[in-house]
Design a protein that fits this description.
Blueprint: E1 4-7, E2 14-17, H1 20-27, H2 35-47, H3 49-57, H4 62-77, H5 84-94, E3 96-99, H6 103-110, E4 115-120, H7 128-134, E5 143-146, H8 147-150, H9 157-167, E6 174-178, H10 181-191, E7 194-198, E8 211-212, H11 219-223
Parallel strand pairs: 1-4, 1-6, 4-5, 6-7, 7-8
Antiparallel strand pairs: 2-3
């Protein structure tokens, strides 16, 4: 029987405005970088994300991590200037967090019958619990596990198991909802959680997995107590 529902944070429950990639791209406009060139360079930088994150995370230096990440993008674009820290400061200055329109209603409904939790690859200086408090979401969660606190990144099984340990539930007793196929869907599936991919913009139509477009679409799965 399903007793818990666990969620990813950004892209699932909340959104960043603007996205980090949008701020980086905006900062490079004077170099005549096209969107196509930038997207390609971001994809290459993403290949180094996990190694770079864990390396810099060993001493909790988010400024150094993001500066290094941005410099990888710049190098691929042929921009030789050291702009990483300057762009990082701009990201911190501009970034705000918003709830998705249905988030509050869904959490309020689910919290009446299920234990709720969050498992997030949180790679910003700000504290995820404080953000959730500001957005009036924190009260719904029995556990919030962030990579910056446990020093483990999804899809590593340990971060999922840490959340399950804290709520004293087995993987098969919980749904897990996230927006990233690699970090969220397959990460959760490999642990034994019952995963659902939230695909708000229908980017992953080719993937053969349970998908929802909004958080409200989880209701039929819970009503049927359906194992996927």
């Amino acid at each position: 029987m399903i007793q818990g529902v666990l969620f990813d944070a950004v892209g699932t429950l909340i959104k960043m405005q603007p996205k980090i990639s949008e701020t980086i791209y905006e900062s490079l406009q004077e170099y005549n970088v096209t969107q196509e060139e930038f997207s390609r360079s971001c994809m290459k930088a993403r290949e180094f994300y996990y190694t770079l994150y864990e390396k810099n995370f060993s001493f909790g230096n988010f400024r150094e991590f993001w500066s290094a990440f941005i410099q990888i993008i710049l190098k691929d674009l042929g921009i030789k200037k050291n702009l990483g820290e300057k762009i990082y400061d701009r990201i911190m200055e501009k970034t705000t967090f918003l709830r998705y329109p249905e988030t509050l209603e869904v959490l309020d409904t689910l919290s009446k019958n299920y234990i709720l939790g969050v498992i997030s690859n949180w790679d910003l200086e700000s504290n995820i619990a404080d953000i959730f408090e500001e957005l009036k979401l924190k009260k719904y969660f029995s556990v919030i596990v962030a990579s910056k606190d446990v020093k483990i990144l999804k899809p590593n099984p340990k971060i999922f198991l840490e959340a399950l340990r804290k709520i004293n539930l087995a993987p098969y007793q919980c749904f897990y909802v996230g927006d990233d196929p690699y970090e969220d869907f397959y990460g959760a599936k490999n642990v034994g959680l019952i995963p659902i991919l939230i695909d708000r913009k229908e980017k992953y139509g080719e993937l053969d997995c349970p998908k929802i477009k909004t958080l409200k679409d989880i209701y039929p799965y819970l009503e049927k107590n359906k194992f996927l």
